[in-house]
Amino acid sequence: MKTLFSEQKIVIENPKYTISLNAEGLSYNTADGKKSLEIKFSEVGAILPMRYCNSNQSYNLIFRDNQGKNICDIDTDTKANNGHNILETKLILVAFAAYKLHRHF
After folding, report:
1. Distance of alpha carbon 89 from alpha carbon 68, whole angstroms
2. SS3 63
3. Mean pLDDT confidence for 6-31
4. What is the pTM (predicted TM-score) of this model?
């Protein structure tokens, strides 16, 4: 099944970072250049969304490998997008689910 992520790359620009998301994974680059990550969904076993239940904060996503060890973490939704404060986090979680579930998604 084709998804939005199979056909195009989604780029989210924030004053603090840029996220580029596609069907295979994402890149995360901070504006100050201190953090630059290439994350492949094939190497990720789980994503833990921290601060997910508190809509008054940004989110922190911890990426774990297939053995349950932390690979890296990123901050998302540090600035509301047109009143929507979970857009970036949702896109990443949906792209990850689409990758892992393949045709079942």
Report:
1. 20
2. strand
3. 91
4. 0.86
